[in-house]
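A quick word before the example. In earlier lectures we treated sequence and structure as two separate objects. From today on, think of them as two lines of the same record. Here is DUF3626 domain-containing protein written that way.
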Amino acid sequence: MAVDSSPVSTAIAHVSGLAQGVPLDRTLRVTLHFHPDLPFTDSSTLEAIADRGAYLSQFETQTGNGGLTAYPGGVRWKWESRMFGGAYDEHESAERPKYGSLNYRADPYGGSPRFGSSYFLLAEHTLDRTTFCFPDSVFEPDLFGTAEAMNLMEAAAAVDFDDPLDDYIEAHVHGTIDIASDVEALVLDPSYRDTPFAEIARSLACPVLWHDGYTVAVEKIAHYPDYRGPHIVDLARGIAHDGVLTPSILGRARGASFDPQDLKKVWHYIARFGTRA
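And the structure line, produced from the sequence above:
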């Protein structure tokens, strides 16, 4: 019998050798967070996904809501090499894993809102080609899991995070994520209703759902200037409409000359303080 030496199989086998625990509850789902209106080439991330019919990795988009180090020799490249035993070192960007989180709390806002207002809810069968780590891979963790061996929920429960946006189990989905066959639903923020992004979403080969939405008054986040900095609160005040911020309002600011990293921090304020929970 031929041995499967594909990068996907090599990476999963490497992590399987590090994972410990019992099989994962198959009712749990992985969520892939993103901002649908994040610019990509001459359009948006959601439009690019619709055109491709598949989810794109940060190595492909060169955009994201975490660190932007997805290039050969970059920090993300190096930690992927470490986590996956060098499986992807010589392979194209499209072959690399896509990052998400295990929504083990069944949060309607998804498993890791830090990385976007909207998310793709992946189908059960994708669990078999997903690996996990805790904490985030940027911290070079030594705790790993797979669908067959997972004790990361216990590890996460033992940590008291100062910032709830840091509280997630990272997921790495290996192989192509086809919207038609690998996605159960696209879950959008309701601020995108009656916008072109809703129309693009309806063109996808998956159901479209809506969570309860993010809305926050600037005066609320002004009580927390130390969270991301007083200058970020000032930026949020300038972006807000009638003193209120939503994901779509923030999205409109992305077409202006603001620093994308500052806008990312405005999103952190919305994500942390703007839920209806």
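Notice the following. The first strand starts at residue 30 and ends at 34. We will return to this example when we discuss secondary structure assignment.
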